[in-house]
Design goal:
The protein has helices at 14-26, 40-51, 68-74, 89-92, 125-134, 162-172, 184-196, 210-221, 255-262, and strands spanning 6-10, 31-33, 57-60, 79-84, 116-118, 152-158, 176-180, 201-204, 227-230, 243-248, 273-279. By secondary structure, it is α/β, with parallel strands linked by helices.
Length: 285
């Protein structure tokens, strides 16, 4: 906000783009996103506004940086800062199914004087090093905040009946909740079980159509759905202030995933937000 010109934000998910653009616009800050599925004329309109200096933040996917139309406009875009959000995706996704993450640095040729900023809530030393290499950061300044989050409390519970314990926790803790499951089938089954007990719940996973995923996320964000039962496809960048509870019905994929998913609770909240992880007695410690 303090710099002249445009901030180009590279971010991974359409839902994340839309959420951040809406939050900025509510604050009177001109922001737009270009994403898959937009009409060509709408893309042209956004890029024209950016060229004229009418936009402060422009959100794009890594794949968009490779498009001919976008690269043509780059010659006239007043970009003075490049920000890569959720930068851990460079290592997490770039080598597997989104190789465009490994090509982000190529956009620097278009804006040689623009500094680049990479942001993530969780990155191991190896991932930090990979981010610096892939973005071609020269003598980077690395700022690391403590992993301690004093507004969260953590519990690990051994349970024979996870659904019963989850129901008991939801009865005790008010506010919205996220429940993470290991697979898609489990999200559907647990959501149906909660619905049968009168709890407003729905499920979310990557196998749902894009529009359906957007609708379910919006319903949860707007408070129409209290509990979202999901795989780890849900939650990146979520900034919802009344999330009081995050439950892992299964052990997360990694310590980094555990930490990042736990952080979806307690945002902008004054009271401690509990984070519970339930597991069977037979699971490995």
């Amino acid at each position: 906000m303090m710099k002249e010109g445009l901030c180009l934000v590279v971010t991974p998910l359409i839902a994340l783009m839309k959420d951040q653009v809406e939050n900025l616009n509510r604050r009177g800050i001109p922001a737009f996103a270009i994403y898959a599925g937009m009409m060509g004329k709408d893309v042209e309109k956004v890029l024209a506004l950016a060229r004229e200096g009418e936009i402060k933040f422009l959100y794009v996917s890594p794949e968009r940086l490779q498009s001919r139309r976008f690269l043509w406009y780059c010659e006239v875009l007043p970009v003075t800062l490049i920000a890569v959000d959720e930068a851990h995706c460079i290592s997490q996704w770039g080598y597997d199914f989104r190789p465009a993450y490994l090509q982000i640095a190529s956009i620097r040729d278009q804006f040689p004087n623009a500094p680049i900023l990479a942001l993530t809530a969780s990155a191991t030393p190896a991932v930090q090093k990979d981010i610096c290499i892939q973005l071609q950061l020269r003598a980077p300044h690395i700022f690391i905040k403590s992993f301690a989050r004093p507004n969260l409390s953590y519990s690990v519970l051994e349970e024979e009946s996870k659904p019963l314990r989850i129901r008991n926790i939801l009865d005790r803790v008010p506010g919205t909740a996220v429940i993470y499951c290991r697979n898609r089938r489990q999200t559907q089954e647990l959501a149906a079980l909660l619905q049968a007990q009168g709890i407003s719940a729905n499920y979310y996973h990557a196998g749902l159509p894009n529009e359906e995923r957007s609708n379910r996320q919006a319903a949860w964000i707007n408070g129409e759905t209290r509990v979202i039962v999901c795989t780890n496809a849900f939650g990146m960048g979520i900034d919802k202030p009344d999330v009081r509870l995050v439950i892992h019905a299964d052990v997360p994929d990694s310590i980094e995933a555990y930490y990042q998913e736990a952080g979806r609770a307690g945002r902008m909240s004054r009271k401690p937000s509990p984070y519970c992880s339930t597991r069977r007695k037979t699971s490995s410690r």
